[in-house]
Structure formats: structure tokens, C-alpha cells
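Predict the 3D structure for this chain.
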Amino acid sequence: MAVGTNGTYHAPVLRRERAKRVRILIGVGAVLSLVGIVQVWLINSDMTRIEQAGPQRFALAGDTVAHFIPSILSNFQRAQAPPNTVTLITADDPRHSPVFINDKRALERWTAFTGVALAILFVGLEERIPISTARERSPTGTDLSRMLILLSVAYGALSIFESG
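Done. Predicted structure below.
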């Protein structure tokens, strides 16, 4: 048995098992984050291509940030309008095509997935910080992961209300 820094006894086997679980957590978080980031990039590129293929008057000049704003928030004035309000959507606007709307839904859900995957990665990385007797370990990794999980769940929930 080995004595820990705070006077407790820990078996070396338990430390190895814990280190193995932390490495697995980091590996899973890194792989899932990489998959999510690649998917977000591919879908965002496809959405930009769809916008650029439409008429010039509808082309957005470098406005890919609008892709990441949940539709329920970007069209908030339309969501608050009475049901008998007529909204004019032209047939040649690529941002209202079924393909673009499906890409928007997929982008929002993959972004939420990537946020949860990054949270898993940050929890694993935070566990790799050695415990010091000099000062308390900062919970930055777990605080950041909690915030990412909360934002990802909210973002994923807002994607349910996606409409053309």
C-alpha cells in the first residue's frame, strides 16, 4: 500500500485503474469532439455552398455566424407574429429550401453534440491535473464542462423549433 499526500492509503492498483479510466475518458472525449467538429465544418460548408448557389440578391457576404444562431431566435419577430400575418418568402431564396433547413437542423444538433463531447474531454483533462498540497486545485475544467453541457442542451432544445 502507498501513502497519499494527505495521509490516506491508496493501493497502486486503484491508482492505475483510475489513470486508465481518465485516459479512456480523454480519448473518448477527443474522438467525439473531433467527429463533431468535422461534421459541423462539413455542414457549415454545405450551407454556404447552398447560399452561394442561389440568386445574388440573397447571397450573404461572409455571414456564416448566422448559421449558428438558432432559428427560433433569428426569426423571433416571425414567431411572435399573429397566425394570420402573411410572410413573404420567395421561391428562389435558398435559405428556405428543404435542403438548407435540414442542414440547419443538423448543424444545430451537431453543434450541441460537439459541446457535450468537449465537456467530456475537459472533465478528463481536469482529472489529469495533479493534486497539490500547496493550494486547492481550480475546478476550471468541471466548471467549463458544466457550462458547455448547459449551453449544448439548450442549443439542442432550441433546434427542435427549427422551421423554414
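The mean pLDDT is 77.
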